[in-house]
Amino acid sequence: MNHTEGGAVPNASGAAGPVPQNPLRDPRDRRLPRIAGPSGLVIFGVTGDLSKKKLIPAVYDLANRGLLPPGFALIGFGRRKWRHAEFAEFARDCAREKCRTPFREDVWDQLAAGLRFVTGTFDADEGFDQLSEQLAALESERGTAGNYAFYLSIPPDDFPIVCRQLDRTGCTRGPEGSWRRVVIEKPFGHDLESARELNAVVGAVFPEDSVFRIDHYLGKETVQNILALRFANQLFEPVWNANHVDHVQITMAEDIGLGGRAGYYDGIGAARDVIQNHLIQLMALVAMEEPTDFSAAALRAEKTKVLESTSLALPVSETAARGQYARGWQGSENVVGLKEEEGYDPSSTTETYAAITLEVHNRRWAGVPFYLRTGKRLGRRVTEIAVVFRRAPHLPFDATMTQELGQNALVIRVQPDEGVTLRFGSKVPGTAMEVRDVNMDFAYGEAFTESSPEAYERLILDVLLGEPSLFPVSREVELSWMLLDPVLEEWESQGTPEQYPAGTWGPKGADEILARTGRAWRRP
Q: How far apart are CA 163 and CA 202, in angstroms?
């Protein structure tokens, strides 16, 4: 029988009973599945796209994998005047359409018994008063033991009022021995000043160790594999430094345009939407020193330390670039440019492409530039980290033998084809000594029979378990804004971003960043 890790399991009546102990289990054995104890999840913005496409399906998949307690409760909060049964039908449709694991009626029926809906608006007390009553009722009905996480899948402007309402009604304070946590979606702030204001608002209601700032990229298997690749293998760590690495490129490219998100995107842009959170976090994992262990405190300490050692390469005019996509060919389709997208202000200077250069001022990385780029309507959808090594001196070879040989590179593919590629030189078959690049590939889908869980499965489970390793703390968020704010301030004082045709790899200005030092962007 599945049992929980730290806590009680509900019995047949739904109440919490003692945890059966496994005498053969070593509590230090982290290979065992981590199963959430008695708990519930409250989703604000439950009818939004994130909830429909990611959160509700992730909750179902966790239940289907046996990682949620039988008495788990899911509470939706929204404007709609739904009865519990109507919310359950809505959630069932979301789960069935987007779930990763097979849809099983028996699993759904058990999960649906714990579904509740509270009608309310953020500025009205009645809904939050009902929420408080519902949480108390679920303690006895479902055996949640007063343990609840509040998921704020809402615009950041609404964080303060929701936090105040939760505090007013006592929802942030459970019975003795229970926990209350808050989950916050990006973007966390618009700049450094607003991020600090949000930290102060949330911190006045929830202690820092109860605040989980979600970056779904950190929940991806391949991102976590960076740690395994670096620290579980003697092969890579000895060359993971400025003596051997020439530069690092971190790319998140999308082949789609704004579509129906024009209203949301205008005023945010590619740098705020992706670089400030996703790419800077990936950079920290690549550049940080080895932690003493994989505890949350140790990981966060090393990430914070490397971000404190990082600065923006200057001048911004030569080390950063921005652009907006124009009409062009995306594969076989002729697509419109940004200024022609429905609902978008043609005079807007919000960028859809951004690239910056960072430098890490420590012994390991001194002199190694980190190039971060993201954009929409680029050549293909791909997220990758490329560690590009210095060129070999080629002393025994003449120029003709190695003229087609590039630089060695280790490429970690985050999506869509998760895996790792090692590029190195190999002799071409034949009588002549000629060396060309070849690739050695590792693909998750081919090496393992298990399918990778969705990032939100891992992250929601971590919230319920109180495992904060993959969630940035306030200091990391503020350090990220410190790196990005000077770029955004300079861009605001300049004119319109450079245009680049859809289906290409960005504006010419981005190519010039690397060309000044004799380098070039990878074409994934």
A: 7
Look up the pTM and report it: 0.86
Q: What is the pLDDT along the chain (524 residues), one digit of tens a residue?
A: 343 333 443 443 344 443 333 333 344 444 446 889 999 999 999 999 999 999 999 999 999 999 999 999 999 999 999 999 999 999 999 999 999 999 999 999 999 999 999 999 999 999 999 999 999 999 999 999 999 999 999 988 898 899 999 999 999 999 999 999 999 987 788 899 999 998 898 999 999 999 999 887 777 777 878 888 999 899 999 999 999 999 999 999 999 998 767 767 888 899 999 999 899 999 999 999 999 988 888 999 999 999 999 999 999 999 999 999 999 999 889 999 998 888 888 888 999 999 999 999 999 999 999 999 999 999 999 999 999 999 877 666 666 655 556 788 999 998 888 889 998 887 778 767 777 777 888 887 777 656 667 889 989 999 999 988 778 888 999 999 999 999 999 999 988 899 999 999 999 999 999 999 999 999 88
The candidate with the shortest Cα–Cα distance to 257, out of 185, 343, 365, 188, is 343
Cα–Cα dist 499/372, whole Å: 19
- Written as one letter, the residue type at 494 is Q
Distance of CA 290 to the CA centre of its chain: 21
Catalytically active residues, by annotation? 278
Instruction: Please count the other Cβ atoms lying within 10 Å of the Cβ belonging to residue 58.
Output: 25
Locate 134 and state its tokens. Answer: 């519902």
- Region of 254 on the Ramachandran plot (φ > 0 left; ψ -120 to 50 alpha; else beta): beta
147 φ, ψ to 5°? -95, 115
Beta bridge partners of 356: 372
Residue 107 has which token pair? 């699993």
**Three-state SS at 491:** helix
What phi-psi label fits residue 176: left (phi over 0), alpha (psi between -120 and 50 degrees) or beta?
Answer: beta
Using CA atoms, how far apart are residues 186 and 386, in angstroms rounded to an integer?
Answer: 25
